[in-house]
Amino acid sequence: MAKGLQPEDEDDGDDSEEDYSDDEEMQSPIDEVDPFIFFVETVKGLQATNPARFQNLMQTLDFSHQALANGVAQHAEQRKIEIEKEKLEKAAST
Q: Which region ranges are annotated with the description Disordered (predicted)?
């Protein structure tokens, strides 16, 4: 193997596991965003603002992908209910 392609024995510290922690104390604005709800709201926004483009997009989907999209929409509605319930429970406990 060429010298430049051999793994180095030295730890340069750039990608130490200590730098990456699963700290639940850390919060970011995106933590509050449910990806399913975001996706469905984006698609609904497209439908409202550009119905022709939305229709064209939906016509390109085969039956299995249309069923998948409907399943995502149903899951997003369930998530909305769950999130609202969680907020109410949290508010009641404080």
A: 1-32
pTM score of the predicted model: 0.65
**Residue range 75-86, pLDDT digits in tens:** 999 999 999 999
Contacts of 36 (CB under 8 A, 6+ apart): 72, 75, 76, 79
Measured distance CA(53)–CA(46) in Å, rounded:
8
Is the separation of the CB atoms in 40 and 80 below 8 Å? no
Rounded Cα distance between 15 and 13, Å, is 6
- Cα–Cα dist 79/23, whole Å: 24
Single-letter code of the amino acid located at 62: D
Each domain of the chain, given as residue ranges in start order, spans 32-94
